[in-house]
Design brief:
The complex is a heterodimer of chains A (361) and B (95).
Chain A (H helix, E strand, L loop, with lengths): L2 E3 L10 E3 L3 H21 L4 H9 L5 H25 L5 H63 L7 H6 L7 E4 L4 E4 H18 L3 H10 L5 H25 L5 H21 L5 H29 L7 H40 L8
Antiparallel strand pairs in A: 1-2, 3-4
Helix pairs in contact in A: 1-2, 1-8, 1-9, 1-11, 2-3, 2-11, 3-8, 3-9, 4-6, 4-8, 4-10, 6-7, 7-8, 10-11
Chain B lengths: L7 H39 L1 H8 L6 H25 L9
Helix pairs in contact in B: 1-3
Classes of the chains: A mainly alpha (361), B mainly alpha (95).
Chain lengths: 361, 95
Amino acid sequence: MEHIVTAGFTTDNTKEFIELTGQVVIFLFILGFLGGLISGFIGSGGAFVLTPGMMSLGVPGAVAVASNMCHKFPKAMIGAYKRFRYGQIDVRLGLIMAISAVVGVQVGIEIQKMIIDKWGEAGSNLYISFVFVAILTVIGLFMLRDARKAMNSGEEVPSSKLAQRLHKLHLPPMIRFPKINLTMSLWLTIPVGFATGMLAATIAVGGFIGVPGMIYVLGVPALMASATELVIAFLMGFSGTVTWALGGFVDIRLTLIILAGSLFGVQLGAIGTTYVKDYMIKIVMSTIMIIVAISRGFAIPGYLKELGTITIADNTVSLLDNISFVIMCVAMGIGGVIILGSMWKGKRAASISESPVPFIK
Amino acid sequence: MEEVKVIQPVYGNILTRTIHTVWTKTFVRAVLFGALSLSAYLLVFLNHKTVTEYFTRGGVYTLAVVGTAVTFSLIHGTFANYILELVGIRAKESH
């Protein structure tokens, strides 16, 4: 593959820009569309497969992360605007969470640096995979159980007992969130936002903590939580883009191709939320989380090998990596199918109930 | 017994005309923003080597990166919105 090396930069392969072929463009467009669809619906997601997807095309890790980040903030901006118009966003909550998340990102980056200094790149990758598997499995299973309960009863589950207890905490400053009709202590929202940023710095998808955190800790309905997450994604993505672009790591061509697909996807996903019940957000999110956790589990033996903890053939590591990537793509595909399927069902039900009755005089 | 008069056809004609006008307006806007989006993409990709060279210089060129991403999102995002409307994908009115 021919590489365009930018003049005046390092001679190593951390900042190389791949040649674009028709296949590359189509692959990125589809990934962008699916990532956008999921983001528009559950407020985050897509990044977990876009970065490895770009790297599988030969894009260096730093350029893949930077270009992905640069597509994330305008996509989130469009998605947030759309869902704001549907009355699903609490801007005040989004801004407070986003500021805490930006701090969380910086702390997360420092932790990553410490791990790299102590155990090297393989240690960092192992830490990332461990966080992926542990957090996504626990939260994903809990969320899926909760969503199934709501689906079987046909009613929305009231806010969690934890959230109800925490709402009684009167630790100033107390803040009123008009759209979600809740008043709570600032000290409840800051840790959730901070954890979102920490996870975003570690696995690039902060929403896997942010959305469940808003639902189960703050007591925000899933539809509003997923919409508010887009405000956080916008601000985190923007600050991340500026950081990466200052270093010249953004390949704007990759960003624009992904955007071409994701701007369709994110609006379709946002429209989809107006046709579904609250628990569908939980179903889609938990399903994706569990599949992604399984996918990352396949990558762990490779990192353990690099650390010298286990002995395993190179072919096996390569096979496991490929399986891991394919499962991630499957997670995205399944997420897309559930979203489009539930949207179609909801649209059909709505059109039946809205069918015109003949006017008679 | 009073005669029941069905006025559905008259109402239907007005509705059809209104839908037709709205569809035409949306179509014109979709074509306009589609052309704008295509031109912007062509501008970048026909000059991709130059664009890549400048946009990866860092520093003040960060503004160009951020500005380009936002501009493309507004143009292409609006185009995508009209396309979705044209194919009948709209948000549910009472959500």
